[in-house]
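Sat 14:20. Reprocessing the chain from the morning session after the first attempt stalled halfway. Input below, unchanged.
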Amino acid sequence: MRSTFHAAAMIAVAATSVAVSPLAAKVIGANTPAPSVTRERIARLPAGERRAWLAYLNRSEAQMRADHAALAAELKPGEAPPPPPKALGDGQKRAPLDQDAAWYAGAEARRIGDAVVSFQTPAGGWSKNQDRSIARLRGQRYSNDAETMEVGTGNFDSPNDRYWTFVGTLDNDATTHEMLYLARLAAALPGREGDAYRASFVKGVRYLLAAQYPNGGWPQNWPLEGGFHDGITFNDNANARAAMLMEDVAESAAYRFVPADLRARAATAVKGALAIILRAQVRVDGRLTGWPQQVDALTLEPISARNYEPRSIASGETTDILMFLMRQPRPTPAVRVAVDAGVAWLKATAVMDVAFTRTPQGRKLLPQPGAGPLWSRNYSITTGQPIFGDKDKSIHDDVNFISEGRRNGYSWWMDQPKRAIAAYPAWQARVGA
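Finished this time. Tokens:
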């Protein structure tokens, strides 16, 4: 990936003030939609790559038809389906991952496990933002978000089918969270009473293997739904969480109940995921920096997501990826280079003496001596400066001058990169850097 600005410009971010005066603040661009994975675009790939990508797209389309047919078959002719499940942003907390083994062997944990299994799609994944303690009814849709989304508005997240979206997904930790919960039940219930949860977990493994692109990345949604959902998604730690779970399936004794052939395929999947992560790191004037929220599945160029999420280098996603890379037991020279460069970029872009805080006019970035470090969520690929999107697709250079609702509803400034920087010295000592 190339860009026109000099790497020194990125380092200068930390040394300059992030506060922009009202007169200087400005709109610096407009967000553009991400491309879908299509037959037309696949036809433009090198000849040696087309067959695998066409097979993948065919498999995705066939699975989408099968998922629709399976849901329709649950209802009798003319029977109305139940209302869709209600949205619940923290619904996964109803399927906790932090209880002791005795709790997972109990009746409440099993009741929740049955609810989780009930919402597994025919493909093997799960949707998002649902109360995991309530079981799906016969004929009830697998997802809930589509009811609140308008079709044909021009929004980048407008669904092709308002009644069928995020079926299934890796967004908001979906699918990987449900699988981790089922794995805890499987461990606590080694006898026949745990078989249904082990079977559901194995189905989830097959889902992740089927959803993985030929180049090793995972889309946000699978079967594919188009637009930015087709992008290889680092947002919400989607690819790294999928890769870490596959890594555990391949190597941990806790997952010996997974068939050996799937465990071998999981190990191969991890290698592919690691390779695509290294290829997706943004290189500027020959120097590696951080990672985007998403990249185009076919070109690996950074892409936009929702209206207010422009293509960028993203500090939060860079943090998540670095934590995954530093987890590797035997890092290759390429992994070491990537980690060194990513941490250096985070250190260079940190700012001090400011806080993203609440005011009567909404959240704003304001001077606060002693505060920090903070990082912008997004950095321009062409200037290295912090950038901020708004609901109307405009891109701004100052968070304080985007709409109040968008300022309040997104983590525009964050401190998560401290985790990667704090973990770096121990990693260096372990690998002998």
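The longest helix spans residues 47-73.
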